[in-house]
Amino acid sequence: MASRALAVWQNRKVVSLLVRRDLKVKYQKSVLGYAWSMLEPLAMAGVYFFVFGLVFNTNRGVPGGDDAPGGYMLFLISGLLPWLWFSVALNEAPKALISHAKLITTMKVPREIFPVAVVSSKFVDYLFTWPVLLMFVFALGGRTSAGGLLLWLPLALIVQFAFSLGITLLLASVNVLVRDVERVVRILNRVLFYASAIIIPSSLVLDSETFPDWFKTLYQLNPLLGIFKMHHAVWYPADAPNAFTLVASIGGAVLTLVIGYATFRRLETSVLKEL
């Protein structure tokens, strides 16, 4: 695995070219171009704020209480932006190898660079949305801390990248042989969205007497829960993950990366024959 990782690093220019090509194709012949990176999350945030913030009064569960700087709107946008990175990467993961079939069969490069390029491209898209987040931070009076910027933010990005890459390696290889994966991913994407405390604070589940203990434990075992709690903790220190959630998140990401890579390597010969 280390030698393959080194090979990917040595071919980082190829990854860079794939990322730039993906971004160029995305905004090609688009009137608004880069502006779509900001308009889409703004539209989503507006819809979810109306439904959950106004209709269902989710503001009562915001970490730090009703008077927390930024309120529910900042909580919402700080979760939606990294979610879009994960969600789009998850949707494109099954096609990571199929869409590059000609390159894979003609270029002598590690095949891992194609899943890496998918995740990296969506990460760059996520970075493009940071002006939106900062706009909300300043407009809503959001605050952060040294711990939020130096600990939770980099840790959230690293763990999310590892988790996303593991899933992409797994789905990209399996989907070449079993094309039903794309349909399963569409369902999984929606389930994970509501199971990861993105638009609803996790306290509404963990502090509720409605749910049994086994369900709360299962809820915390979702690696994405810890990832998005880390994203939220940048602006809401009260939402920092506890030890169990943090270990489940980091451990789940590492385990997913190992399983995804092992599956990718094991199926590589069959995938090449199919392509």
Automatic annotation (TrEMBL):
Belongs to the ABC-2 integral membrane protein family. Pfam families: ABC2_membrane. Keywords: Cell inner membrane, Cell membrane, Membrane, Transmembrane, Transmembrane helix, Transport. It is found in: Cell inner membrane; Cell membrane. Its main location: membrane. InterPro entries: ABC2_TM (IPR013525), ABC2_TM_bact-type (IPR047817). The chain crosses the membrane at residues 31-52, 72-93, 113-139, 151-178, 187-206, 243-264. It is a multi-pass membrane protein. This is Transport permease protein. It comes from the Bacteria. The keyword Translocase does not apply. The keyword Cell membrane applies. Residues 32-267 form the ABC transmembrane type-2 domain.
